[in-house]
Specification:
Layout lengths: L2 H5 L3 E4 L7 E4 L1 H4 L2 H16 L5 E5 L2 H13 L2 E7 L7 E8 L2 E8 L8 E5 L2 E2 L3 H13 L2 E11 L12 E7 L1
Parallel strand pairs: 3-4, 3-7, 7-9, 8-9, 9-10
Antiparallel strand pairs: 1-2, 4-6, 5-6
């Protein structure tokens, strides 16, 4: 399936989760097996050049994307969760969204010092989520090779807040 056909499945949801926010719903891609497989193949191919030892997935849609990518690439998967959801000792990071503040955590033993890491998220908006994910990777001593997203909302200028490479399958101005 062609990338443009996959991306056409993304639905805009106005005023979610609050007034003035235009939410990008990627779940219709997951509902279409051909689109989902094609998207995973596209994402896996895009990050393969970085030779990641771990893919760091941001809750929750990042989990759905990163798990099959890790299998495709033969690397480990690290799940970043919201505060209080992980059972063992964690690193913590706060981040700002275009509609509020949140926190995420990662197990302290999830990434070994020096491991090559790619951070995966579905959409890059303000960059707050990716910046917090990077903080967690750095606390563990991982080496961020880059970050991959499906869609970058370039008008929010989130990539300017990051000090590592960010790739997007598509950029919306």
């Amino acid at each position: 399936m062609k990338l443009k056909d996959i991306l056409a499945l993304i639905k805009d949801v106005p005023n979610f989760p609050r007034e003035g926010v235009q939410f990008k719903d990627i779940t219709p891609i997951f509902e279409n097996p051909k689109a989902f497989k094609s998207l995973i193949d596209e994402l896996s191919e895009a990050v393969a050049r970085w030779k990641p030892q771990k893919i760091v997935a941001i809750e929750s849609r990042g989990f759905v994307l990163a798990a099959p990518m890790a299998i495709n690439l033969g690397c480990g998967l690290v799940l970043l969760r919201k505060r209080g959801k992980l059972p063992r000792e964690t690193f913590k990071a706060e981040y700002h969204l275009e509609y509020g503040v949140d926190h995420m955590e990662m197990h302290v033993d999830a990434i070994k010092k020096g491991e090559r890491v790619v951070i995966l998220d579905d959409i890059l908006a303000t960059g707050g989520t990716l910046k917090a994910a990077a903080s967690l990777v750095e606390q563990a001593g991982g080496k961020i090779k880059g970050s991959q997203v499906i869609l970058e909302l370039a008008f929010l200028e989130g990539a300017k807040n990051l000090d590592f490479p960010v790739q997007a399958l598509v950029t919306q101005n």
